[in-house]
Design goal:
Blueprint: H1 5-15, E1 18-22, E2 30-33, E3 36-39, H2 58-82, H3 89-102, H4 104-117, H5 126-130, E4 135-136, E5 139-140, H6 142-155
Antiparallel strand pairs: 1-2, 2-3, 4-5
């Protein structure tokens, strides 16, 4: 599967476009575009920042987002196949947003936690676990709570708001 329009709209609504390097993403990481991670930690002039020094336009930011989402899509597709999880488009889109934001490791950890608690992966258990990922650097962030709730609404079939 590939992320659909609803998933991309959800991601962009939370990431907000910034054409210049910034480290005010909630975790203090060097970022550009729609949440493209340049490197962990503050922007400090490292070598991999140089290609973004002049900033990026919407087209370049969209290409970075598409590339980043491909990794999240692959993680979800591989995990779903491995554990025989059937996802509809809304569920897939919500999990792409979740994985893009929290990382592949968090998604896999969540699925393994559900597997430890259940025989298989009941779809209705996923949202209950997603909501737990509302912290950055150990602190609960209102923005992450809002994002998890929006992802859960999409996962459960509600329209993106």
């Amino acid at each position: 599967m590939k992320v659909g329009r609803k998933g991309i709209e959800l991601i962009r609504s939370f990431e907000k476009f910034n054409g210049h390097l910034y480290h005010t993403d909630g975790g203090g990481h060097c970022t550009i575009g729609w949440g493209h991670l340049v490197h962990p930690g503050h922007c400090d002039g490292r070598e991999n920042e140089k290609k973004f020094k002049a900033g990026v336009n919407h087209q370049v930011a969209s290409q970075l987002l598409e590339s980043d989402l491909a990794g999240a899509e692959a993680t979800i597709n591989q995990t779903a196949q491995k554990y025989k999880i059937q996802l509809n488009q809304n569920q897939f889109d919500a999990l792409v947003s979740f994985t893009f934001n929290t990382g592949a490791g968090s998604f896999k950890k969540m699925i393994l936690q559900i597997l430890r608690e259940n025989a298989g992966v009941p779809i209705d258990e996923i949202p209950r676990h997603m909501i737990r990922y509302n912290r950055s650097s150990g602190k609960v962030l209102l923005g992450l709570e809002r994002r998890r709730n929006a992802e859960i609404r999409l996962f459960n079939g509600a329209a993106v708001q």
